[in-house]
Structure formats: C-alpha cells, structure tokens
Amino acid sequence: MEIALNTKGSRYHVDDKGYYGRFGGAYIPEMLFPNVDELQQQYLKILSDPSFQQEFEDLLRDYVGRPSPLYFAKRLSEHYQAKIYLKREDLNHTGAHKVNNTIGQILLAKRLGKHRIIAETGAGQHGVATATVCALMGMECVVYMGSIDIERQAPNVSRMQMLGATVVPATSGSKTLKDATNEAIRDWINNPVDTHYILGTAAGPHPYPDMVARFQSVISEEIRRQLQEKTGSPDPDYVVACIGGGSNAAGAYYHYLDNEKVKLVAVEAGGKGVHSGFSAATTQLGEIGIIHASKTLLMQTDDGQIVEPHSISAGLDYPGIGPLHAHLYETKRAVFLNTTDEEALAAGYQLSRLEGIIPALESAHALAKLKDLPLNPDDVVVVCLSGRGDKDLGTYIKHMQP
Amino acid sequence: MNRIDKLFAEKKDNVLNIYCTAGFPNLEDTLPVMTALQTHGADLIELGMPFSDPLADGPVIQDSSTRALHNGMSLHKLFEQLQGFRNKIQVPVILMGYINPVLRYGVEAFCEKCAEVGVDGVILPDLPMDEYETDYKPVFEKNGLHLIFLVTPETSEARIRRIDNLSKGFVYAVSSSSTTGKDKNMGDQQAYFEKLKALQLQNPVLIGFGIKDKATFDAACNYSNGAIIGTAFIKAIADSSDIDNTIAAFIAQVKGN
Predict the structure, then answer these.
(1) pTM of the predicted model, to two decimals?
(2) Cβ contact, residue pair A31, B99, below 8 Å
(3) In Å, how far is A173's CA from the nearest CA of chain B?
(4) Residue B218's closest CA among B179, B191, B187?
(5) pLDDT for A271-314, tens place per residue?
(6) Which of B52, B156, B179 is facing A186, going by the closest CB pair?
(7) Percentage helix, strand, coil, to 5, in chain A?
(8) ipTM
C-alpha cells in the first residue's frame, strides 16, 4: 500500500491554494496561522518520505490489520440482484476506518516534534482511534466530545478513558460533533506550540481535507487490487459510502475520482426527513459558507448562523461536509442521496440478519440506499462498511421491533 | 477622514477600546450600551456581531453571543438599530465578527451598509489576508471601511510587516496565543510587546485579550497606543439592572478615576 502523491492535472484534487473548485481554503484566526502554515508547508514532504511511508505501511499491516477484506456479500447480493461487495473497514483495529488517518497523523505529529494530541469525536470512533495511537506512541491525548454524544456513545467514552485519554465534554451549542470540533480548535488556539490537532474527517482548514483523504486512500487502493483479483477488473460500477464530514467516502472514492466510469454515491443523514427540521443532509439543506475554517456547503440560517443538525448516528450529525465532497456535489461527479434514521436502522437489522454483520449506524446509512440504486444483475457495487455497530447496540436495541 | 484615523491623530496614548456584543444583555441594549460607553470615556467601541460558532472566543463572549441570538439579534436587525446612530455617537465604531454571516449578507452589501450607517472599521478574525487582498479589499476601500488584522506572539516579523501594510486604522495585538478571556500572565508577554514596539509599525497598536482592569490596562499601554477590553466588560454588564451606572463604574476603575 502506498499513499497517493501525484494528483497534478486532476479536476477533483486540491489545488495549490487548498481549494477544490470554489470550496476549501483555510479560514483560520491568526492565532492558528503558525500551526496551519507549518502543516501546509510540511505535510507533503513528510508523507513522501520513504521512511514515513514504510512506518505507515508497517503499522497499517501489523497493528491495524490491513488490508481489510473485500467481502462478497452473497445473500445481500441475492436480495438486491447485483454483485455487492463490502469493504470491511469494520474489521480494522478499533472497529472503523478512522484508525487509518490517526496512524498517519500521529506519525506526522512525531515528525513535527509535537508532544500533545487533541481530537474531536462524534460517534467516538475517531476519539477511540486517536486515543489508541496516542497510547501506542506514548503521547498525551485530549478528546473533545459533545455532551449529548457522550451519553449516546457511552462504550466509546469508556474505551477512550481506558486507553488513557482525557474526554472533555463540549457543552456549547448543539452539544454534538460541531461543538466538539469548536472546542478542539479552541484548545489548539490556546496551545499553539506543543500540540497537534488530529482532525478526524476530511473537513477543516487546508491541508486537513487533503491530508485525511490521502491517509484514507488506502481504502480505494485496496479495493482496486482486491476487485481485480475477484472480478478481473479493478473498477466497480458503483462505490457507495456514507457522509458526515466525509472521510470514509473520500478514502473509498480516492483512486476513482478521475475515473468517471465508476459511479460515486454519497449518502447523507436525512434524520427524520430532509425537510422535517431534524436532518443533517447538508447538500440538500446547505448553502456555501464557512465552518471550521473551510469554505464548503453548510446548513445555516438566512443570517449565516450555523444550524444544528440531527441524525440518529452521532458520526453523521454534522451541519457541513468536507470541501472535496461539496465539489463532487457541485460538479455532479458524485450522486448525493440521503437516508432517514428509520431506513438506516432497518438496513442495520437487514445486514445483521442476512450476513451476520452488525454495521455502525453510519455505515447503515450507505447500505440503506442500495434499494434506491438502478442496479442490474451484473453491476458490481462496493459499499464502504466504515465501522462496526457495537457502539450503537443501545440505539439498535431501543428501536428493535419485538 | 475615517474616525479611527482621526482618533489616533489626536490621541496617541491610553486609547480605551471596549468590546460589547450587539443585542446584549437585551436586544434593545445595543445603543444604550454604546451611548454609555461614549459618555463615560471609551475612546473606541468594538461592537460584536453575534455568531453561533465564534471560534476565537472564550465561553463568556460565546455566551453573550448565544444570548444575543436568542434575543433575536441578526445582522439585519443590527443595521436597523444603527440607523441614525451617528446623531448621538461620535466615537469610532468597529464591527467585530466572523466571516460566515458577512458572506451570507453579501460582502458588498455589508460594506455599503456599514458606510451608510457610519461604521468605521471591521474585524473578522477568520478572514485570511490572502482572501481579503484578492477578493474583498477594493470593496472595503471603496466604502471607506478599515479592516483591522490581528497579530499574536507567534506571528513572524515578516508577517507582522505584511499585516501592518494591509491593516488600516490600527493593528490588533493579541496579548497571548489564546481565545478571549483566558487568564494568562501579561508579564510573560513583555518580550513580545517590546519586540512589537521596536518594530515601529506604521499603524497604531492596540493590545487585546486578558485586559480586565487598571493594572492590565496600564501594563498594555506601556507598550502600545492603548488596549481593548472584552470579556471583563461583558461579565460586568451581563446581569446589570442599571447599564449606565455599571458602565460608568467599570470605566472609572479601568482608568483609575
């Protein structure tokens, strides 16, 4: 596995100024300029260093357990009358794709000479992945998490604490992922010298969206190789992934971005329905704006105040999307659909019964849209199964029909 | 002449700039607070445009923004309140806020409205210099609006020079790398303040963040043209039943009158 480095000439990769089309940039207060500038200057140099690549690859293989399997889901395929493969990111160490990025960023933080790590988390998967790599590297770890998410993802809070991280509740605003991110950025402003912020999704100021996408690009790199072995072609007809900020989708799409034969499907959290007032379907409800230092699509009021989103899945409960995805939406390179809370739960139960795999509620959003794709029996569909559902058992059980 | 330039032409030292959040503590308090600030001796007023997600602010100012938004404050409402305010208030007024609501309002429309009601300058901490220079500078200049940039202890000398070139009115020197309202020791920042003073910037310099009373105000004024008080002032008026008296007392203790 190798981090993709040459992206020159692509319509869908970041430009020299940190933009994807009209989205991206680094709208940071001056207090963060030195940190973000240092990252912008250093990240590609560090990522392209062969010793960095070697260390990243070794840890992904021996510690994370990569490559993750590409599983042909036979019963699911029969049900939907297509060839459906699941990219099993749920089988990674810590139970989600998030660890690909945290391994990359902790190695980067070490090379930047940082001693203290901060992170934000929604569902807790990124928090756990960050706490894990901090334990591995012996670094101090502080994770910000919305106080509502602390309640609904209790097992992950305990895991982070057991791994030695301090979990700090974010009590402002909607008390979810958006606010956890605000608090993490504030911590970074207050600790500009020794701290690296391991941002968990393909959002935030440049270079985070590009850096996170590159670390996650191992997903599509493996899909290509594995599909070639299984089907004789590296290219599926569809790649389907859920989108909150969009890191698992960025990773699953990465090597297909310029290959327009492959249809990219992004699934947002529709909550209780796109127009119910309880939704996180950013492309449907958002307008161009700036959130967490990035110009992107953003759910906001006419006055430019950020709207509090809703999703049953804490990992998708975010009022923006990463700038790459805003660009994919605007250029129509990806199709954006959305799944309601109810549909996601149903898809979670369905996968459990048909394949013996309990998916994270986030991943269940992606699975729920298989029914809406115009599939032919010969179509090869890859669904990124971004994480496992252990953390969501409480929610699943609460809604289970007797 | 822009009122900020006029102020610094006439007064080089101990300039007191006080930050207040528009629509706080109550929706209709914006003008009474500004009037009291002028009456009791503030040289400059920094009026906060409340935002739901103010990244560079600490909890006190964030809470004041949340409260103002709950009160019904918005950019449209603020410009309504500011219609005709120049009949009463002569001190320079700067709007401070975050870029998203301004983008949403429309940068050009925003600048024109500022000019129309008589606002002199704007602080947008999350608007990068590059974007300002390429996209927005002509619109600000056409409307006679000064955009004020921040420098911090971590800002390099070359960048401070660039900021000084691009800023108009004054340069906002953040006393320590922090969000607003953090209690950091001003004494620790002496080397930074001295460095800044030695640079002899073309703009006046006001020091902000951590200024809360006479001692910190005087300390900041030793190295600069004056200082900005935000969090301490917001705390003082948050539960006040008599805004005018509270503000009189607050400014008196800062100035040591």
Answers:
(1) 0.95
(2) no
(3) 7
(4) B187
(5) 999 999 999 999 999 999 999 999 999 999 999 999 999 999 98
(6) B179
(7) 45, 20, 35
(8) 0.94
